[in-house]
Structure formats: structure tokens, C-alpha cells
Amino acid sequence: MPNFCAAPNCTRKSTQSDLAFFRFPRDPERCRIWVENCRRADLEAKTSDQLNKHYRLCAKHFDPAMVCKTSPYRTVLKDTAIPTIFDLTSHLRNPHTRHRKRIKELTEEDLKKIKERLLVSSIEQLASKKDAAVEDSSSTNEDEPQLSTEEKEFREYLRSLFEVVVMLGEQSIPLVACKASEAEYMSNNFQALLDYRMNAGDEALKKRFQATAVNTEYLSATQQSQLLDICETTVREEMLMEVRESRFFSLVTGDLVEFANEKHLPLFLRFVNQHNVLREEFLDCMLFDGDESALVERLEAHLTDRWGLSMEECRGQAHKATGTSTTKMKAVAVLLVEKYPLALHMPCSHMALNIHLANSLPFPNVQVVMETLRRINTFFRTPFTQDELEKAISTHYQKNEEKGTTLKEACGSGWTEQHSVFDVLLDMLPPLLLCMDNIRDNDDGRFADSVAADAYSFTETLSDFEIIVTVVILKNVLTFTRAFGRNLQGETLDVFFAANSLTAVLHSLNEVNDNIDVYHEFWYEEAVSVASVMEIPVMVPRLFLRKQRAADVGEIQAEVYFKEYVTVPVIHGVMQEVEDMFCETNLKALKCLSLVPAVMGQMKFNTTEENYADVYRNDLPNPDTLPAELHCWRIKWKHRGKEVRLPTTIHETLQLPDVKFFPNVNSFLKVLSALPALKLEDNKCDTASARLQAYLDGMSAKQWNKSLAMLYVNTHVKHDLDVMVDKYCRLYAEDDPEAEAEAESEEVAEEVAEEAAAMK
Q1: Cα–Cα dist 698/114, whole Å
Q2: Any stretches that span the bilayer, and where are they (predicted)?
């Protein structure tokens, strides 16, 4: 929400200017003087606390000597600052504007008091200016010695280096280009850009490197790493400042990424910033090593020791794990909830609930299906492979063109991440196998050998009857959670109704579990029918049969095997995961979405948030007044004017100018907004996680760099090159390249002298 200036005849607001805005002081005496100088009669009856919370003055009303810029992004007032610059006459030329901020008419006594105070103030300001001048001159001479010419040149040189590094990161350019073979020269993008800048006239770089040999690297790998670390920490600190100001946050982790042959866990934070906008930012990649307890300790160390946050203020967590890391991350989530009960474990809004549920099942056959889906998504990104798939669909469904057309539309970009993915996959299995056979044959030589090899691998997987049964079971079981998951990723009203419909979902799953024999019979027949169309034999997995023979156990029928080892584990696993993800505390939090006016209106303003508010009671500024405040909140919207539209989202509600008069509701909504299950505003597709994935997809795994990924994902974050230079000089002052070169030459000279002495 923008800040408006409280001064009469001043129409400035924060969205139209880069001016700083300052709160009225809490000190009653200073606040009284500010009000008197403003000549706003309507402000005299308000307390200093009220004025401090709700009123601001822009920097134009203060003497410039009273305004201090502590950093490029932060401006503060001196402790003794008093506003003295006001326009008290322009309203006379336009009387119609006078009703907005009435100017108090001064009496003779008021004028006398003001003159006396101005006289005292001018004397004090004059004295403070003299003291400041003396202090500045002494500090300049004593505390801040002038930089030498060499130091200035070194800082300019560093600034040029940081400019190049930031550009490489923001444009997703790797430090080193890939080479086709070991014999091929590997070009260094960083060095090439330094050459370009020197040729373009960068004097700082020229002086540094003009005497360097042509084939010599300008910077060692260690020095490049130091530059990258400084860039990464500077960008991260800018974002952490906003997180600390917002107080509450949620932790979101991504799928594992491999940097320098080590697995790392991407860390994201969700929070509501000072403009009441929900943000999700990429902060770091943490080494994924050790057991669950070690990972929890490392996570805590990252957030508390390194980032200066408090886990006590973490209000949610979501983990987008896949494959073998799923079980470990579920254990991490449980340990975090045990230590911090309000860090609610929820599904992430970026991932369809059915995908999350399938990923959470620790069964090898299910994990093979999920890994195959991820590979299919990558395989069909090229136009050639996508065209081949559409041809296979047309061929298989030539007698049912309507079904073929529908399937072509459904298998567009991102279909493997949709709520109905298993329904589409089941219909796609026959044409998928046909498509892979055609690519593997590669009669016309359109496809590279690597693509044909991938197609062969897909063929082996898709022609396994166990995989077909698994897809059929997943499709049928997750049908009961599909609508629930879609609502969970919908608008605020949809999420609220989803939270209230969970009982029906669990009832349906329990009904399937109680009648598992009947359901399995139908599902198994469906799997056999699909296998018959694909000409795949119905059989028990070879590995299981081998184990049976080794144990000298009698043969098992295929239908019985798949019921015992696929259907029953899947239904039990899905039920358990739904109950864990949507426990009583999580549902209470989601039901608090009835605070959003549109939800209240849908419920005929007959909502009972008080029953669920105990979850966040300690997060509220005045919890004892919550019942009365909620009553006023309902009355406000129930008796609104006909032309007033009910806000439909938390974001809309937080942007209302009068929500600040409901401090408990305001705090409540900010905490709820940061929950990872709620989607980002305006269906933002360019999220931090999407940008990270774009960085990883844009280059080979060997070129991935954690620091450059940080710069690419967070191009929107402001950064100051001078701050980076200062940090580098503080941390690596002794790492001056020229000093290192001199030291190395001295060491070489000493070694030569020692060898000569030994020979004598």
C-alpha cells in the first residue's frame, strides 16, 4: 500500500516518487512539535502511537541536513529532525482542495510560541552543523585515511571484474564453454569477456593485464570462486533483509541438483513483503549429505546461524522431492514439525497434488513410473519427437479421430505435471510404445543415435506388464483426490472448500480399502485389456519369480501378486500421505481463509474463525481482542454498500487501506498468505523455481554453477557493485594478484638458489 504525505497541500505518495517517507515520532513531545508545524488541526487529538502507525511526512518537508542516506536503499532522519518546510498558501488559489487536510488558523499566542521554538531550533541546528563539520573533518583525517592511487586502481579493477561476473550470471553464460573432445581447446568465457572490455577501452583492466602473456589465465580458479561467492552473498543478503522485516516465512525445498559432483538441495523462502505482496525467493543450495538428523541440523544452521532468521517464525514447509530422496525429506519434515510445531508440512502449490502423492510412495514400480514421466517430459521437447508422437496417436486412434484429437491437445507442453496425468498416460501408452518403436527403428535416419537409444530404453519400460498395472492402479486410486487437488491449487474460495471436503475424500478412499477385492478385480481386468492392445504378455515380474524359486515357495497367480504388491500398498500409501499432509492443525489453518471477505460472503457471513484461531494466537498483536475484532470485520463487509466488491484473495484484502485498523486480521492474513499450499498471486509462471529449472535446462550439467544460478534466478534483486568491492577488500585484502605473483616469483627464486647451493 502506498504511503501518502500528511502535510497540507502536499499530494506526494510513495508510488510516484523515490522520496523517503518518515513516520511521526513516538516520543510525545517531538510528535507534538511535528503536528504543530504541520498545522493539521485534525491531528491534534490523536496520540503519538496512532500518528506513528498511520501517518507519514515526505523528505521534502525537512532540512536536507537532517536527512541521512545510510545505504543506497535506506534513508533515515537524525534524532533531532523536525519538519520546517511547508506550503501553507497554495490552497488559497484553489479553495476546493482545502477540505482534505484542513490548515489550522494560528492565534497570536500560537505565533509567539512558534517563533520562540524556531529560534531555539535554529540555534541548535547551527551548533549541530558546526559540530558535525568538525567531527567530519577529524574523522576524515583520522578514521578514514585517503586511498592511495594503487588502491583506487585496484578497486576500479575489482569493479570491472564484478560487472563481468554479474553479466555472466544474469545472462546464464557459463564461465567455461563445453568442449566436444578432450583434445579440443576449452574456451574461457570469463577471460574472453575481459579481453572484450579491454579492447573496448577499460583502462582499469588494461593496466592490470597489459603485461600478461597471451595464453595466461587472467584470474585463477580460486580468485574466480571468491568473486562468485561475494556476488552470491550480496544478492542473498538483499533478499534476507526483506525476509527479516516481514518476520514470518515458509521453507520450500526443490528437487536435488548436482553441483561439482555433489548433490545439493535448493532452498526457497516464502514471505509477505512490506508492500503486502507474496514472494517466493531462491536463497541457496544446501549440501545434501548425511542422515535425516544431520540434514535438519544443517538446515537450522543455514537459516539461523548464516541467515539470521528464527525457525520459531517458520510457519510452513513443503518439499518437492522425487525418487530416492522422497523418504529422507519426509523424515526431515517430521523432525522439523516435532521441534517447531507451527512449521506445518504441506504440499507445494507448484506441484499437482496427485503428482506429489505418487512421488511420496516409496515403491520401486511407482518410482519407475514417475521417473519415466519426467524423462518423457524431456524427451518430447524437440519438434521432431513431438511430431512423431502425434503421428503415432493418429495411427493408433484412426478409427476414433475425436479421441485422437483430444489426446493430441492433452499431450501438449507440461502434460506430465497436470492433475489428470495418469488418465492421459493410460490412454497414451499404446501410441507411446508405437512412437518409441518408430524412433528406435529410425529408418529414415532423422534421429540421432542417442535419441534412438533413449527410445529403446522407453520401449523396455513401457512393455513391462508391471508398469501397465501400476499406471492403471495409480489412475484409479488418485481419481478420488484429483478434484480435491485441483481445488487446492485454485482460488482462495476453492482452497477453503477443499479444506472442508477432505472428510469426503478420506471416506471414498476408506470405502475402496474396505472393498479392495472388488475394486482390484475391475482394475486388473483394465490392465490386462490395455496389455492385450499393446501385445504385452501378462506375467509376474521376473525378479519376484527368481526370489520365489530361491526360497522354494510355490508359484503365485498374477492377479494375486499385483493385488498384494501393487494395489494394497498404493491405496494404503495414498491414504496415509493424505492424512499426514492434511492433519487437524493444517486443516485449521486452511479454514482460517474464511477471513477473506469473498469467502465470508459465500458463507453468508456465518463463519467461525475463532474456533481455528488458536493455531496462530501467539502471532497476533492483540489476541485478547480477536473475537470483538472479528465481529467488527464481519459487520464491515456484511453491511457494505452495494457498489463495494468483496475482495476474493488474501492479496486483495491486504491491499485495502483500512485493513490496518484490524491489526489481528492483518497479521492473520499475512501468516496465512505465506503457507506453501497457497498459489502465488496472479498465477505467476516466472517463479524462482521455474527460473532455476530454466537455468539447469539451458546448459549441460558439467557447466552448472551454484553462484551463477543464484544470479540468474534473482535478476530482479538490486545489487551494488561498490558493496561487492568493499566486501572483497575486507575478506581477501591479502589476495592481491600482483602480491601473489611477487610472492610466487620470490619462492621460485629461493628454490633455484637452494638447488644451486645443493649442487655446489
Answers
A1: 67
A2: none
Q: What is the pLDDT of residues 396-415, one digit of tens each?
A: 888 888 888 888 888 877 88
Residue 304 DSSP class: I
Rounded to an integer, what distance in angstroms lies between the CA atom of residue 391 and that of residue 270? Answer: 43
Chain-centre distance of CA 444, in angstroms?
A: 45
**pLDDT at site 181:** 47
CA distance 589 to 673: 11
pLDDT in tens, 248-264: 999 999 999 998 888 99
Cell of 525: 481386468
pLDDT at 310 over 70: yes
Domain boundaries, the chain: 21-105, 149-177+187-349+680-733, 356-582, 586-674
Please state the pTM of the whole predicted model. 0.75
CA 38-39-43 angle, to 5 degrees, is 85
The percentage of residues in the chain with a pLDDT greater than 90, rounded to a whole number, is 27
**C-alpha–C-alpha distance, residues 528 and 465, integer Å:** 8
Q: Report the amino acid identity of residue 203.
A: E
Cα distance between the two ends of the chain: 83
- H/E stretch holding 224: helix 221-246
C-alpha cell recorded at residue 284: 541457496
- Residue 744 DSSP SS3: helix
